[in-house]
Amino acid sequence: MKRRALAGVGATVGSLTAATALLIGAVSGHASPAPSEAYGAFITGVIDPPQPHVQSTDGTEQSDSLAELPDNPLLDLRAATVTAGDSHASVELANVEIVPSGGLPPELEEALQPLLDPVESGFTQLCAEDPTQDLSEQLPAELDPLTEQLSPQQMCDIAEDGTPALLSADLITVACEGDSGTFEIANLRLLGQEIEVPGPDANTEIPLDPLVNITFNKQFSDDDGFTTQAMAVEIAEGEFEVVLASATCGTAQDEPEEPMAPKPTPVETQLPVTG
Amino acid sequence: MTGRHTSATAGARTWPTAVLSAAAGVLAVLVVLVGLMWMIGSPDGAEYPGRAEQGEQTGETSRPGQGGQAGQAESGTGAVELVDSTTHTTVEGAPVDPAPQQGTDGVIVHPLRPTPVHAEPGGEAIARMTPTQISDTWLPVIDERDGWVRVLLPSRPNGSTGWLRGEDLERAFTPYTIHVHLGSMTLRLLSRGDEIGSWPIGIGKPDTPTPAGRTFLLGSFTDAAQQFSPVILPLGSHSDTLDDFGGGSGTVAIHTWPTEDVLGTATSHGCIRVPRDALDRLTEVPLGTLVLVDQQ
């Protein structure tokens, strides 16, 4: 279903650029640019470490791109571009599909069983009895921001016709500049039906406590700097994590420039030199 | 070794008087020597007082590597003592400068206290660096790693380096680099990479050449007993062919010369002779500033 990742050439060029920049930086100046970092996707144990992934430790701009992710049942995309530079970073993902088809991997399905079982039975009953009924009674109330936009009839049709991606979007972008971030998801679809993007405020959470916590436009600051992520999903209290499009802007390191060396004052002494 | 010439002009005196006079002179010299060594506190007579009147004398020529002191010395109690890394000593086991023609980012360090010099970060101590030598000790940083800095050493052999703990050091920045081109016999002064001065120079004779490589401004001093230069700027390097010279340790220096006809010639014992206006600019340059000597 999925294809292999590429970007070997890009990564090599990026590494060489970084190495050259480090060398130049070592002999040319004292400026301490803010480090930054960007990656396209991270899934615990699946796309781990994240891909594609770039870091800029000296302020020089680093970029990488990926046409396909490693084969996995949870995430598919057609293009990912990540860029990191001096106090800025950005990610652009195209044609993203989360749980594209065929259901969840067994271990995840087992972990989510308590959540999925009532949904599945509720759907089965609803679609069998009256597909025009309100879905919200059959689903966890926390999903209302998403599910209230869905047509029950279409949901039941989907159940019969096949399995569209759980979530998909034509374009996901995030970017940070210093300690501010931007976020955009174009054409977000839940089970094939287009829905409004939750938010647009930062840290719009859809908690399905205690199993799943979904955050759109997640923003936070820590020792690494300011980070903005398009979507972050925590399952089983963080044991399993999915992050889509993450950009981190570090803060400039607080290393003062060296003070100017003093002009020497000649001392009176005797030291025979070679003349 | 060339030393002080004691003049015992006995011509008009009787023989016993001449002998007594000479003996008194020798005694006086010894007293002065002991007094000076006591004041300096240097066991190897670092600031040797019996120096040349004019600075330019015929030195003893010996093979490179001879003379000087080892990095560690046995004390009277059998304990191993670290030798100070100075222009008068040899530090054995000091790692060799890996890039003798490469510039640095201008960071220099000054030991805040006597601090060990290590062969590698956290490794064996091979010598000791003191806060003051001729002047305040400032050394160029050529590498840094995990709180350690690698510096050029002022001791023999040429190209010696060592690692110091960063916490023992004061840091500063010098924008200058001094380039000495032996082939064209020119000296160029750069500030932040831009040339701000260029002068013809005199360099070492073929049998006492000015050593090439990466060194630094070690000190700045005046010496009322010599007339060839108002200020002398000793470097961290030494003559490779003169283990000692004029009572000193063969230290290479930058200075002027009474006549300008030496400029553009290879006639010194290793020192770099510069015109007066060059010296005026160079005396403004911070100690620890890198001096890159090449064959261009």
UniProtKB/TrEMBL annotation, chain A:
Q: Does the keyword Signal apply?
A: yes
What keywords are annotated for this sequence in UniProt?
Signal
Region of interest (Disordered), ranges: 250-275
Identify the domain of life: Bacteria
**Which residues constitute the signal peptide according to the record?**
1-31
Query: What is the official name of this protein in its record?
Result: Uncharacterized protein
Automatic annotation (TrEMBL), chain B:
Q: Where is this region: Disordered?
A: 48-76
On the tree of life, the source organism's domain of life is Bacteria
Q: What is this protein called?
A: L,D-transpeptidase catalytic domain
Q: Which GO terms describe its molecular function?
A: peptidoglycan L,D-transpeptidase activity; transferase activity
Origin organism is Haloechinothrix alba
Its pathway, per UniProt, is: Cell wall biogenesis; peptidoglycan biosynthesis
Q: CDD domains, from UniProt?
A: YkuD_like
Q: Name one GO cellular component term.
A: extracellular region
**By its UniProt entry, which InterPro entries does this protein fall under?**
LD-transpeptidase, LD_TPept_cat_dom, Transpep_catalytic_dom
Q: Where is the composition biased (Polar residues)?
A: 55-64
The cross-references to SUPFAM superfamilies, in alphabetical order and at most eight, read: L,D-transpeptidase catalytic domain-like
Q: Where are the transmembrane segments?
A: 20-41
Active-site positions, per UniProt?
Answer: H255, C271
Name the UniProt key words of this record, in alphabetical order: Cell shape, Cell wall biogenesis/degradation, Membrane, Peptidoglycan synthesis, Transferase, Transmembrane, Transmembrane helix
Q: Where is the L,D-TPase catalytic domain?
A: 176-294
Q: Name one GO biological process term.
A: peptidoglycan-protein cross-linking
User: Per the record, a Pfam family?
Assistant: YkuD
